[in-house]
Design a protein that fits this description.
The protein is α+β, with helices and mostly antiparallel strands. The chain has helices at 43-51, 58-70, 104-115, 265-278, 317-320, 333-338, and strands at 20-23, 82-85, 123-126, 132-141, 144-153, 158-166, 173-174, 204-210, 220-229, 236-243. The chain has three domains: 20-85, no CATH class; 104-117 and 254-338, no CATH class; 123-246, Immunoglobulin-like (Sandwich). 16% of the residues lie in helices and 19% in strands. A hairpin with a 5-residue loop joins strand 3 and strand 4 (132-141). Residues 303-333 are annotated as: Disordered.
Amino acid sequence: NPNDDVKVQPGLLKVTANIVFGYATCVDAKAYEVNREDVANGIFINFLKQRVCENEKVTIMLDRVAEDMGRCAIARGRQALELRSNLSERRSLTDQIQATDRSASSSARNLQWAVAHVLPESCFLQFDCGVKVQLGFAAEFSNVMVIYTRILQKPREVVSCSAQLTGFPADVDVDLKQSNQETLLEAGSLLLIKEELLCPDVPSLYTRIHSLQRLRRELTFTVCLHYTYANMDEEVEEKQPVTVGKPLVSKLNLYEPRTPRTCSASSFTSVSSSFVEEFPSVSPASNTWPYYVQSSNIDSLTSSRSANVPEECDSPDLYDAPPSPVSSKSWPHGQMNDANYRFSDMSNFNSY
């Protein structure tokens, strides 16, 4: 090894005092999993998911998870959470992120991130037979969405009814065998929790849609209502078309080819400014997101980028050039926290 003679001169060690380890089990103990419909993880993860979003210090939150595990008959006496921490401040997983990088490129990425996680608003459909149906939406990833239908009210003469989804565009992927299922697990969703959806006690049908990054137009589908009257044996069907705009990452139009160009610090500034000039606000109620890459400046952001392959540009120009002052037109991080974005129920913001 050519580095064998090199003497490492470590500097002063810095104590961060912000490390927390939560182990699913302890020494000489075992870790168990439950093979049940409503539990798709190990026992530790199952209880952790129920408390991970609590506005409490991380160590306190994990202590409560340990108490929950202690009350579980399966884990009691067999598995116990082990906690190690040097946390010196009250840190919670719900704390707002305070970014130190206020550059224009950071503002542009923050805006793209926020836009890629905006869900359609829940809506209601009224059918001629008097049945009222609710459509709800939940994000599993930035390119995977679950749509659920619920019967909110029906006339007395209607003895049975169900609202099923069909007619999705060919751009997205929908497994017909797993669509319109009575549970999230049967629909292929292992991450979402039913209790975190709106009105979890109302029976629902779930349909999972993925590959939203390939969606070229607004997402349209058909709601088919199947119902039966008390004095009739034959089933009746009503249909209503629904358009929910471009949900989640489909707003970014990642299917569009990008022309490779050289990145520069000035191009990031112009891009961030154009975001705020053309789109001053983003809200969940917006159904469409205009394709902002029409500007010649935006192409410089995507150096060596091909369609559907997000890539971060690390051009040397960004490091050689002195940092320019942040324009007042860039998207500040404080406004990002104030905006009313609706993100995934499980805070899973990754795409695959």
